[in-house]
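Subject: Predicted fold for PD-(D/E)XK nuclease family protein, 975 residues

User T.R. writes:
Posting the sequence so we have a shared reference for the thread.
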Amino acid sequence: MQAFLHLVAEDIKQRFGQDLSEIAIVFNNKRPITYLKKHLSEVYKQAIWSPQFFTIQEFVKQATTRGEASALRQFFYLYELHNEMVKQEGGEPESPEEFYPIAEIILSDFSQLDYELVAVDQIYTELYDTTKIDLEFQHLTAEQQAYIRQFWQSFSMSGHTGVQQRFLKLWKRLPQLYRRFKERLANENLTNYAMLYRDLAENDKHSSDIVSAYKQVIFVGFNALNRAEATLFKRWQDEGKALFYFDADSYYLDDNMQEAGLFIRRNIFQTGLVNALGETPNLIGNRTDQVHVYASLGKVAQAKLVHDLLLENEHEGKTSAILLADESLLVPLLQSLPALQINITTGFPLLQSPLFGLLDLWLHVQEEVSWRKKEKLPYPMIESFLSHPMVRLAQEQRESIQKDVVDKQLFEVRLDILSISSSTVPTFFQPTANSAALIPNMMALLEALQQTSSGEGILPQIDQTLLFETRRVLQQLLLGMDQIGPLNIPFQIGLIRKALAPISAAIEGDPLKGIQIMGLLESRSLNFDHVYILGANEGILPKTSNSATFLPDNLRRAYGLPILANQDALSAYIFYRHFQHSESIHLFYNSVVNESSSGEESRFIKQLAFESQFQFVHRTQQQAISFVDKEPELVIEKTGKVWDTLYNSYLRDRSSHISATGLTTYLQSPLQFFLRHIAGIKEPPSVSQEFEINNLGTIIHEVMERIFTPFHHLETFTSTKVLGENIPKIEAMVVQEIGRQYHTEYKNANELNSLQRIMLQIASAYIKVYVEHDMEHYKMFRIIELENSEDYYLDFPITVQGKTEYIKIYGIIDRVDEVVTHDDEIKTRIVDYKTGADKVEFKKARNKDDEETAETMFALNGTNDLHKALVQTLFYAYVFEEKTGRKELEPHLYVARRMREDGTLFYSKNEGLLEGDYLREQKSEFITFLRRTLEEIFDPSIPFRHKPDMHVYPSDPYTLFYRNSISENTDDEQE
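User M.O. replies:
I've generated the structure tokens; pasting them so everyone works from the same file.
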């Protein structure tokens, strides 16, 4: 099928012969120019005098010698004029920061009014009147409000809110602001395209001067014309100077219900423009080809699906284009393309590059340290910098900073401790001296990155182009801002982000060879043999939102201004025209429903499927499903190196020992025990924004030790009343201990960060509960042992493969004391402090045969969840008794949350408190339980495997390691 531009080239040759030197050819955009040149060379097959090619903007620009006013300069002029009017009205002028979002809407509305040749005084007067009526009579029906509008001059009522009054005043001043704004631009010898269009449409002589320089002006591929363009085009046609080539199909042109033909119908039947190609063919209506529609499982998956199709469909001599209805798919598409020749028209967007991530981070840093004057930054901001590839921080320095932060658990990092001298950008975290230096400092940052950016290949080239373009845009922004007074830093940052958003880096290629990648809008006038459209979702094609405006829909319709339906018609036309000439069409959409996707294909696809004779072939991507007989698991057999390491370190060399924590780790998950204690896989250091329960426990233990240390080794009993002297000092002791834990000296609570203050409040409350409990329940006390982590090792006999071996077990004794109750009974206790959700209640679980096993003894509340606190406390008590010869030690657990209700002595609902004969019985059972467990650890026939029914803290790094290993194994099996 012949391409549209090839038909245009043939008609031009027939009309104008060999000499095209006095012909001007005008397009909507630059892209089709290269293609028309190609088709002209194919049609003429010889050297000819070339026509002159323009975009529509370039063509009308010939009508003026004025410069083009930048968007920023237009804002500044509008801002100054607006505040002058406000002052004349006796009001308070607005700051640039307040006025900027309003100015963007006003300037956009001004441009639309100019393009559509709308009488500004009239529309804004009507806006003022209708808005005032709506506000005054909100309680009335629409019919009643319309009736009152007929007699508006007779009414004057009050009662508006401040905001409503402010906007009413704005509507009233807008016509005069419009005139002053145009005068200001004229005085500065500046203009904008909207004003230029209006001046040409309303001035016959000026418009005729443009076309008089050419024998003929040819307009190719236009669709949606604004009223100024329609007026000019009709005038030039009547003068015999203009020729129009419309790319249309009677399928949608002759059917008034087809939105795709809306604008060309207006151009031909209302404006009276003549299509130089003559009668419009019905290509779409007569085609019965297949159209392939692909429902992908996710947005990025569309790019993955294209890969295989390109390899199948790409043939020599055929043209192909990937059209992005959703242009955010460019990066995943580039990552998925096979090794084929490509040319990217849209360019690589700065917003999706690593450079923007670094620049955006720098702007956030400056907002914090230069505007808010903060001396600390959240650690995630520091981590983002440390891990960014473009900063090129030395590995040693990165690790040093990370270690310091992790050791001190710095959720917020002081700027004065950051040393980044080895980086490409060593001044990254330095505050900007004043607001005027913000953009120059950012440009210096870019220069430093540009000097160190090197390497060959497409990505370094993109980086260099983006760096250059960003510096150029910032320079323009700086020149524009120099014309007015100083602007605060947040406002400048907002301007910078807006200026950076449209930047992209062109990826060079041959526009006539290989696969062409472009946005859907850029494909106007172009035809390809194979077309792949990505992002063909409802809500994207067409878009469901319009630009912000102060002009309501009813006024826009009344004055012929663009509305959302116009956007739908434009999208439909661009989409439908590819069905006229393309040999094969492949449409991709995201079928997953989420906050950014409807999960539905575009309604244009449904319309064509219902109305046309195309054969739509739908394919849905399926997720691979693997069926397994049982839950996969990671099993470590006790053979080879695993057994050698286990046996040698614990039994032969005895360089390792089993602690209470190691024992409970094994009971919860033998696999976790292997990873931590046999394989030696360490937990990665991290800084968590969540509450650090381990640090809290350490702080409480250390402060309790400070409180009881003066009484350690005293032979006599001490009254518990003396403990009360420490209560007023608890908060200060906790602050000091927090400082020690985070390697920082804190003098008072005001120096703590927010999470540390939470820790301070909880730790202080817990310690107070512990101290008050001892004062309330006991008359006197004597400390026997306190926080001893050195002396309590014990050789414990077990049987391994029929032979007696000795395993070293080890306990840390938090506190052993003797207390005198109010009944003058003396008790010897071992005390453990807990800060979590531990309980002193326990109930032995039983298996289905109602027999106790090593797995079910000492469980929590009759479940298979291990009662860790009970096991550990009995473990400590056993080691202490064996080492010292002291017996009858009662295990006590201090759980601040439950002490007042449950006490501190373990108990079972069925058996009562864990004391006396019941305690002696349980201690004996514990020894048997301990021996069985240790022998199981060293039994070669029992592998290390996870216990899926045992509760383990879900974010535990070893549990995550296990789950990820299972996932990876499963994926391998599927592959």
